[in-house]
Backbone:
């Protein structure tokens, strides 16, 4: 897309950093697809996207032709449970401002981000793209879920009323380098941070919260980044597209904890604190539509991705988001 200006909101986060790395790698390899493309990765320091004037100032400054919209208030189960109102209001404001500015500044295409955790809690499996609005989400994260669902509503409105090509992708749980490893984190980065500390202090026992029984599909941030770039270039439907590993790649929280323990070579005992919530038991999503569109795509094996993330954390933990 020579001459394009691609604005990535949330460009300093887990997914944004992965896209940045992929773009730099492809440009350094001389990949012609990236020739004369200007990629701009934003953080909140560039402007608070909850504010309409700050949002429009960013669009006025950069005049983007394309937008990958990642910026959001994001967090794991426990952070969602305690802040559903904030998750709803902040994400509603960010999403309305970014899509309105994209329309106002005549952006050719926007790819926004939903999540497989926003689907109805009572559902049949596997979940597919047609089910986004088929019932209430899980109670633990209704704020985030409803705000994300409104992206799809806005996209359909901008298409019907203005012919705008605004679409969305639906990743499963994402992990990798540059993640948020703090107390508001998702399970994998939280376990990485806590396991690293346990190794440092020579603990013989490691506590995983909940029963360890819930099931999750985890996608490596670098794989998601590649898929995001493909969607930006080649996917032209307004309908959301699930970007997830296969149903057969689904693992339990216990298996995920074991993989992290193996990556750290932790020899102690893993125990479970069942006084902590489990959240959704499963949210198994089908990637059938993606597989039909990108039959050649290969995902990084889960244990390989965990090992790379753990190695990154060991080297960068002092500058990581803790
Ligand atoms: P993240 O690491 O928490 O990064 C969030 C990004 O949004 C950061 O760049 C942050 O900027 C920016 N941001 C937050 N509030 C902002 C505001 N008010 N104004 C401007 N920028 C703001 O999140 P992530 O995991 O990369 O998630 C990226 C997208 O993927 C989100 O839309 C999320 O909903 C979606 N998603 C994530 C997962 C997952 O498991 N992580 C799963 C499915 C979907 P600062 O760095 O300056 O704070
Ligand atoms: O990634 P996570 O926090 O959120 O995973 P969800 C929660 C599961 O991991 C629960 C267990 O079963 C927890 O009991 N777990 C075990 C832990 N140890 C820990 C730990 O130290 N920290 C955390 N956080 N969990 C989120 C949604 O659901 O999925 C968000 O709430 C978001 O909105 C995200 O969309 C992708 O996968 O349950």
Residues:
């Amino acid at each position: 897309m020579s001459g394009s200006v691609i604005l990535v909101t949330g460009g300093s986060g887990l997914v944004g950093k992965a896209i940045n790395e992929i773009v730099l790698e492809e440009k350094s390899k001389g990949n012609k697809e990236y020739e004369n493309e200007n990629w701009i990765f934003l953080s909140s320091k560039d402007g608070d996207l909850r504010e309409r004037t700050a949002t429009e100032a960013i669009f006025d400054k950069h005049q983007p032709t394309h937008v990958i919209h990642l910026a959001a208030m994001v967090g794991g189960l426990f952070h969602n449970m305690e802040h559903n109102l904030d998750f709803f209001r902040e994400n509603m404001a960010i999403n309305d401002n970014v899509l309105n500015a994209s329309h106002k500044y005549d952006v050719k295409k926007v790819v926004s981000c939903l999540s497989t955790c926003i689907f109805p809690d009572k559902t049949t499996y596997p979940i597919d793209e047609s089910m986004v609005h088929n019932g209430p989400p899980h109670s633990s994260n209704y704020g985030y879920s409803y705000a994300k669902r409104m992206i799809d509503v806005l996209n359909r409105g901008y298409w019907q009323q203005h012919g705008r090509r605004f679409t969305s992708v639906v990743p499963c749980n994402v992990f990798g380098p540059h993640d948020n490893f703090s107390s508001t984190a998702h399970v994998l980065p939280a376990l990485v941070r806590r396991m690293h500390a346990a190794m440092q202090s020579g603990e013989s026992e490691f506590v995983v919260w909940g029963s360890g029984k819930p099931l999750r599909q985890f996608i490596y941030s670098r794989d998601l980044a590649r898929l995001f770039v493909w969607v930006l270039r080649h996917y032209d439907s307004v309908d959301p597209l699930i970007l997830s590993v296969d149903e057969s790649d689904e693992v339990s929280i216990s298996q995920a904890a074991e993989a992290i323990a193996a990556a750290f070579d932790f020899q102690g005992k893993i125990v479970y604190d069942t006084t902590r919530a489990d959240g959704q038991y499963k949210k198994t999503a089908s990637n059938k539509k993606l597989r039909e569109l990108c039959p050649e795509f290969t995902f990084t094996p889960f244990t390989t991705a965990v090992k790379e993330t753990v190695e990154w954390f060991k080297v960068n933990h002092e500058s990581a988001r803790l």
User: Anything to note?
Assistant: Residues 5-316 form a domain with the Rossmann fold fold (CATH 3.40.50.720).
